[in-house]
Amino acid sequence: MVGESSGHKAEYVEDLMKQLDAHRKWVQGLRGGRPADLGQADLSGLSLPKAVLRKARLTGACLTHIDLSGADLGAAILIMADLSRSDLRGADLMGADLRGACLNGANLADANLAGTDFGVGSIATANPMVRFTGTPTPARRTELRDADLSRALMRGAKLADCDLTGAELVDADLTCADLRGAILVATDLSGATLTSAELKGAVLSGARIDETVLAQLVELGVERRAKLASVADRLPALIEQHRHWMESHGSEGQRLELDMADLEGANLAGYDLSGALIRRSNLDGANLRDAVLVMADLAYCSMAGADLSGADLSGCALRRVNLSGASLKDAVLKSVPIVGDPERPWPTNLQSARLVNADVRCRVAEGVLLGYSDLIGAQLNLALLKGADLTGARYVRPAAEASE
After folding, report:
1. 68 inside domain
2. Does a structural domain hold residue 143?
3. pTM for the whole thing?
4. Which one of 5, 68, 158, 180 is most buried, by most CB atoms within 10 A?
């Protein structure tokens, strides 16, 4: 059933299906057809594979967790629509207008996105009686964080200033795409085609780039190591404020919060940065030896060659972090009990992290999340692997474990 488990009332789903059928007839030139205007509509959680929505108006619509795999959305108007966690595998979105849309966590593998507009968008807040009138909403950039765009056809796509943090662009065709100013932090561009693409001002910190893609970037004159915000001069003061914040339980000082900061080679050895928020930043070669990073959030950071030996990473968020060649020897990766919910401790999260050739022989670990991580060439021990979630991870088991 289309509406089964979607949370929508049967009458609502029935009316929606009538509109979709009438739109299909309109697209196909059949009798009884009329174009659908589903602006601000809630289609979340519905199963509509292969739906015909070409040229449909879906401005500001809620399409979260929807199944539109194989659907025809060519030239559809999806300005400011919420498509987070949607299934758009193999969908045709050629020429669609996705300005200001949210596609975080969406699956767009094998989708046709040629000529699609992902630029900055804005619409007016809908009035209950008259659509798209009222107080204007702030313009926002299109978000594709953690989206799966593997093998997607994106020729000529307009992706300027888009946020593609952590996106999978493996084997995507980005020929002639406009990626100026795009955030490509921690993206996987392996096998991508970038012929004649525009990447001026794009941020590629921590992106996975193979030799073929690197050669294309060189040919395009792209500086792979685009400058991030420098914080070296004010880092000591920020750390001191963070210390006051922790000691006063948040009543004084200020939490350390950094985004897209340049901390390459920073000496943070022994510092207590528990609860700090340092995301999408460059910590390549940083010294974090014996640092305390309990419940800190370092997601999407590049930490290649960093020294985290002896560090306390309990409950630390290290999702999609590049730790290639880093040392986590004797580190602590325990779960942290959650106040009010002791039955659900907060584990150290290394999901989709790159730990190629890293030393991950930790001192103690507990239920570490290593799903889809790359541990090829890494030095591992049973303390790390015992009880860990290794779903989809790439690794070679230690000899001691293999012989059991």
Report:
1. no
2. no
3. 0.90
4. 68
The confidence band for 226, taking pLDDT boundaries of 50, 70 and 90, is: low
* Nearest Cα residue to 196 out of 169, 164, 221: 221
Q: Which two tokens stand for residue 29?
A: 């030139």
Nearest to 328 by CA among 393, 294, 379: 379
As a whole number of Å, the CA-based R_g of the chain is: 23
Task: Give me the pLDDT at residue 403, please.
Answer: 45
Amino acid at 289: R
Query: Which residue type occupies 342?
Result: P
**What single letter denotes the amino acid at residue 229?**
A
C-alpha span between 375 and 394 (Å, rounded): 6
* C-beta contacts of 88-94 below 8 A and 24+ residues apart: 92/54
Q: How many domains does the chain have?
A: 1
Residue 69 lies in a domain: no
Between CA 86 and CA 52 the distance in angstroms is 16
Among residues 100, 97, 98, 183, the alpha carbon closest in space to that of 137 is found at 100
Domain assignment present for 377: yes
Range(s) of the domain holding residue 284: 229-404
pLDDT higher than threshold 50 for residue 177: yes
d(CA 95, CA 100) in angstroms, rounded, equals 15
Tell me the CATH number at 238: 2.160.20.80
